[in-house]
């Protein structure tokens, strides 16, 4: 009797219980699907954010490269050219006398003229330290203003193109020797033809001939 009673006590679940169980299983399935979908969305967002961060990190480098390439390179300044210098070869010296012939009581005036024949101004030392008034007769060295010059000075002047400077020396028709040694009385230039050459430093004039009476 007890075994039959126990078997009758075990009942099958009612239809309502089956409905509740199916409803619970469906809700649980939806929750699982929602969690899976949420995980996929989160993962997608993370991956998208990683791509944006990577792009943001690359952008400054590209921007800097663009800015660097757009920056113009410094243009080197032009080297100033040196001022042109005058041609000293175009600076010439000329010898002249105030007359071509002189009487026995006349003293010649010897002239040295320096001229700038170039197209640029030239600095020239026209001081007595550079000048020499030389008088010769054949092989005879008659007179030189440098033999007995008491003092010599420098005088640098700027000669404009085509301009000249002239120095005059009255020659008393005396003779001289290098070192200004004393000559006997009456050592003067006699009558005859003479040659005058003007010197200014290393520049030498063409000769000028004149006559003493």
How do the helices and strands line up, and which of them pair or pack?
Blueprint lengths: L1 H8 L5 H56 L20 E7 L3 E2 L6 E8 L5 E4 L5 E7 L2 E5 L11 E4 L4 E7 L21 E9 L2 E2 L3 E5 L1
Parallel strand pairs: 2-11
Antiparallel strand pairs: 1-3, 3-8, 4-7, 5-6, 5-9, 9-10, 9-11
Mind explaining what this structure looks like?
By secondary structure, the chain is an alpha+beta fold. The protein has two domains: 14-61; 88-212, Immunoglobulins (Immunoglobulin-like, Sandwich), CATH 2.60.40. It is 30% helix and 28% strand. It has two helices and eleven strands, in the order ααβββββββββββ. Strands 2, 5, 6, 9, 10 and 11 form a six-stranded mixed beta sheet that branches. It has a three-stranded antiparallel beta sheet with strand order 1-3-8, with no helix packed on it. It has a two-stranded antiparallel sheet with strand order 4-7. The longest helix is centred in the N-terminal third of the chain and has 56 residues, at 15-70. The protein is elongated, with a radius of gyration of 60 Å. It starts with a helix and ends with a strand. Residues 1-10, 39-47, 49-57 and 59-70 have low confidence and may be disordered.
Q: The CATH topology of the largest domain, please?
A: Immunoglobulin-like
Give the count of structural domains: 2
Query: What kind of sheet is the major sheet?
Result: 6 strands, mixed
**SSE series:** HHEEEEEEEEEEE
Name the average pLDDT. 77
